[in-house]
Amino acid sequence: MGTEREANEKASGEGDASQLEAASIADVSVEVATVDHTLQKICRKYRKTRRKPKGLKRLQARLLSIPHLAVIITAVVFVVLIIMWSLLWVFLFRRESNSGVYFAGMFRVANVEFIPEYRQAESREFVSLAGKIQHVVSNVFKVSSVARLYKQAIISDLSNNDKGGVLVHFWMAFVVPQLRSKSVCEECVEAIFRDSVHISMMNRSSVGYLLGLPVDMDSILINAVERSDYSSSGAGSQCVGKLYANLPGLSVPLNVFSSWGDVSCHVKLTSAPGSLIRLTVTSFLIEPSDCVSDGLTAYDALLPMRGRILHRMCEPVSRSFSLVSTSNVMLLSFRMTNGNKSFRGHFEAIAEEMSQIETHVEPDIIGQIYSPFHPSLLPPQCFSTWKFETPSSALGVALQFQNYVLKPKEVNGCEHGWWKVNEIIFCGSYVGHHTVFRISDHSPEVEFRCSSRISAQPFQATYSSYNISQPCPENHFLCSTGLCVEKSRRCDGLDDCQDESDEVFCSRPTKNCGGNSPLHPLFVCNGESDCPNGIDETNCTQETTCSAIRYQCSSGSCILKKNAKCDGVLDCQDHSDEADCACGRPSSVKKTGSPPGRERIVGGDNSVEGEWPWQVSLHFSGQLYCGASVLSSDWLVSAAHCFSKERLSDPRYWSAHLGMLTQGSAKHVAEIQRIVVHEYYDEYTFDYDIALLQLKKPWPPSLSPLVQPVCLPPSSHAVTDSHRCVVTGWGYRSEDDKVLPSVLQKAEVSIVSQTDCKKSLGPVSSRMLCAGVASGERDACRGDSGGPLSCQAPGRGRWFLIGIVSWGSGCGRPNLPGVFTRVNKFTSWIYSHIS
Ligand code: ARG
């Protein structure tokens, strides 16, 4: 929308300019007539009043002769044009080249006692103190290196916290010519302010003097802010609300509706010094747009400072949750476009939590530990310690987390929690399964600190004691996730450990087709006849208990047949396996790709029109950046790593090129409404590398069959040897290629077993899948990311999206297959967002 708006503005700007040009030409022609006319008039008058000497008459006659007149007129027109152009330049362009740069900041003034009157900006007391402080801030900048650019400082709020004194919140505005925009950067402005505070060496505290005002150096924070924030919550704005929670435990309702028009408002929440604010969001009904048009940002301050964002809500909320501030203030910045949008919730003052917990762990008894402020989101600076004690030195402590894992700290900092367990540091991260962390000590001390700058998801763990010498019960296998599973479950084709650690390094299962032990689940109803007597493919549609490798019909019942979806046979009693099957069919266009011998992608060939109608080319700021696949008329799927940096996550910079064979010839270019990156995506390991993109408008059905969805594999889907798998994209054709191909490339690859892949590439999670050829001659490469690894069901069946191009070690190297996101692990995640 932004780009559209920018384009419109640009276009209307251009329109203005041409109108002005037209206007000036019209004006000039009037002027010419007038000059001519006046000249004639003057001449007539002159003739009447004075008798001219003969020479003068001749001169006049010569001047008024046709060729001379033309020269004069041209000169006058020229002069008028120059004057008008200069005026235009002065009024339009010069004014435009200066722009406002805005900051919000805060600092604590020590030694001033807070009085309740300071809460009202209209009170005499506020006006008097704010006036003094404003004067000081202004004087600091008026003698600084940016004095000529400084415009004004406004004190917006005075609050108090448990540190004493008065916390000052202020705005600052600078008017900066575009050429000098770098001289008023955030760091520069903060440095000017800090350098003006003089700390005496004798004084051990962090309080120094700012032109006589005692200022706490540690409290200074200055952030650049958007002009819109400055004007919507700055001085004089009508849309700033202040609410107070004075009594602890008393909740204050907070509801905002947009039914009367656009809302762009700031609500400031304050509670008593020493308390914290807990905001509970009951519901937030908005149009999801990645916070572009609708959204709510909660700040851990009274002004919208980027460095103090607690939480951003860009998606509708229907399940209630809460978040906690780190002090007694919070700012809510609402943005809701006209319509039936609403926010419902409440807030209250809460006490700080006790952070030291001592626990005696009795054998066979399990207990719970919770993240600070659970079930609220974790605030940025939280801290907690747990001291456990088991009855014997042979018993350690096991912590079982629901969706969280502790791993030894590596070179990178911890992003999702910092843990110290008996002096050893671990980093926490969120995962989609259970894990067990065992501490082989009978009285360990566990320390946890929040490490994210914004609020994070809460966690919870059960603790119990375990036998240090034998962590798992008899006949159990210890998984890498820390879980214990029965030994008989190892190599049974089922991911019991939740990270497949029970399914790697397995010898290839034997097909005991006539044997008395049950057939290995890998062979059962996988669509391929593995046994000569065909018993592995019998009774496949009989209803049975559900598990991850069995197909689940819409009714909830399960059948053994793994690949029942859209195979042209009605397998489920409710026929749901053959519903929604408008997918995975290339439009039958001319056959054959590029002539043999022309190497493409890494070892690929040119595709032909309509061969991969789900293939999308994603362009960032107009440049090819990633691939994606069509899932429906308004959803695409791609890789999370394509969107992981700040600007990359803004949907306005992206466009999706659909129905394209050669770059630049898309049948349809779509704008992106929002990007949903998987919540557990890990930018270091590329685990959970998946993202969904919602289009602003569905692509027109007339584009079919050149644009079509790919089939989404059910969780039970199994790729067998008789599947044909092809990776496609416009990425580089070799590791050190410099030019991207213009025609969509395709390369046939085979699925590599997880065991072999881990052997050659190392950290390959169960959410990843490897594919390639041993020689390495066919592979994906840079630029193919996010694009599909499509596999065709045997018997020229439908194409399923089995993988998403994710990472690799170089491109096309022997024995180093490409790594793809394993799509069937995300089927329910995908449906939860797109349906
Ligand atoms: N991460 C790469 C991209 O951003 C894709 C790499 C795939 N590499 C490979 N050898 N298969 O485009």
Automatic annotation (TrEMBL):
Transmembrane segments: 66-92
Keyword Disulfide bond found: yes
Record-level Gene Ontology MF annotations: serine-type endopeptidase activity
Membrane-topology annotation of the record: Single-pass type II membrane protein
Disulfide cross-links: 472-484, 479-497, 491-506, 546-558, 566-581
CUB domain segment(s): 239-350
Keywords: Disulfide bond, Glycoprotein, Hydrolase, Membrane, Protease, Serine protease, Signal-anchor, Transmembrane, Transmembrane helix
Record's protein name: Transmembrane serine protease 7
Native source organism of the sequence: Gasterosteus aculeatus aculeatus (three-spined stickleback)
Upper lineage: Eukaryota, Metazoa, Chordata, Craniata, Vertebrata
